[in-house]
Amino acid sequence: MKKILIIFLIMTSMAGLFGQTENIENGKYHTSKEQFEKKYVRQEYEKYLKSQIKVEKNKVVIDVVKSIEFSENLDKRFKLIFENGLIDPTKVNGNYVLRISSIDELILLNPNPQTKRFSFWIFPQKGISGSENSVEYMLKGRANPDEYYFELQNENADENTSFEKFIEGAKLTYLAYGGVII
């Protein structure tokens, strides 16, 4: 019995050494960290008024002509970002329609309670110009999504502020193309 207990203790202590944990130096954080360290420039974007936004089941319509579509499985917290008019589709991909396939908060890259950083994926679409000779148009059917990064800031937030309250008072302060996901 003593030997079994010793083996059990050794195994559980080793599991801590080899268990998967998020690391800011690799995985999803590696390119994100580089983006925010090397390319970050604080910007100011206008936020749409609630009166300009119509929320549907899997879509947010902004100013009647712009829309952001997402999966019904998208975390409701992330839907709040779009429902609060923080993202303009034309600022992302030059198109009036933005189809979000994945979104993730980059928790380890949030420098303080007033700042939240995110990444999201979209698949390329035909641009506004509609030129059949454009690179965007030719790559429209490619299988790999594009990754974008954005940052939200709420000057009145602290470590006790709920995600919902943070989003209500937030402003978009950074939006950038990150690259193609391979």
Describe the structure.
- By secondary structure, the protein is of the alpha+beta class.
- It has one domain (22-180).
- 28% of the residues lie in helices and 26% in strands.
- It has six helices and seven strands; from the N terminus they run ααβββααββαβαβ.
- The chain has a seven-stranded mixed beta sheet, with helices on both faces.
- The termini are far apart.
- The model is unreliable at 15-20 (pLDDT under 50).
List descriptors:
single chain, 182 residues, globular, 6 helices, alpha+beta, 7-stranded mixed β-sheet, 28% helix
Provide a compact summary of the structure.
It is built from six helices and seven strands; from the N terminus they run ααβββααββαβαβ.
How would you write the strand order of the largest sheet?
1-2-3-4-5-6-7
Please state roughly what percent of the residues sit in beta strands, choosing from under 5%, 5-15%, 15-25%, 25-35%, 35-45% or over 45%: 25-35%
Task: Write down the overall mean pLDDT.
Answer: 84
Q: Report, as a whole number of angstroms, the end-to-end distance.
A: 51 Å
Structural class: alpha+beta
* Unreliable sequence segments: 15-20
General form: globular
Helix content: 25-40%
Radius of gyration: 20 Å
Write down the secondary-structure element order: HHEEEHHEEHEHE
How many helical elements? 6
Could you say how many structural domains there are in total?
1
Number of beta strands: 7
The largest pleated sheet is described as:
7 strands, mixed
